[in-house]
Amino acid sequence: MKFDGNKVQMIKFDQLGDEKGHLVVLEGMKDIPFDIKRIFYIYGSDADIVRGQHANRKSQFVLINVSGTSKVKVYDGKSEKVYDLDEPHLGIYLPKMVWKDMYDFSQDSVLLVLSNESYDPDEYVRDFDEYLSIIEKQD
Ligand code: TYD
Q: How far apart are CA 47 and CA 122, in angstroms?
């Protein structure tokens, strides 16, 4: 895996496979740039639903559409960019303290999420103005 520091980036996983089909392996600190502590997946969201809309003080994430497609809009306090998740061997790495929206879910979308942290609702920043003020103080 080529991993370029602590910034938002797409990660293309190796596809191991043969005539029987494909297989993707996700090992912490190898294919994924952190030790994996939490896994969850998101499915059954309609096309007009926007999920996320928060930043995390501690959690880093890798998001993979293992089935179907979705989009992720990421704001890092300076610029905003939209990423397409449209292949089961394609992930996006999100460092801590980026603001993210997940949307445009296809009907068959299963969005797998890996994180370096256990769930702690207190490390979620769900108010955008609060997010901006935290980011400003960091600079
Ligand atoms: P939420 O973070 O709002 O989902 P999304 O970012 O996809 O819009 O989480 C939805 C619900 O699930 C909320 O009640 C919190 C709960 N939850 C957990 O209990 N543990 C977790 O690891 C996550 C991600 C959510």
A: 29
In short, whether 52's Cβ falls inside 6 Å of ligand 1 is yes
Give the per-residue SS3 of the chain. CCCCCCCCEEEECCCEEECCEEECCCCECCCECCCCCEEEEEECCCCCCCEEEEEECCCCEEEEEEECCEEEEEECCCCEEEEEECCCCEEEEECCCCEEEEECCCCCCEEEEEECCCCCHHHEECCHHHHHHHHHHHC
Rg (C-alpha) for the chain, rounded Å, is: 15
89 given a catalytic annotation: no
Catalytic residue among 26, 34, 54, 124: 54
pLDDT beneath 50, residues of the chain = none
pLDDT of residue 5: 73
pLDDT for 2 equals: 66
Residue 26 and residue 14 in contact, taking contact as beta carbons nearer than 8 Å: no
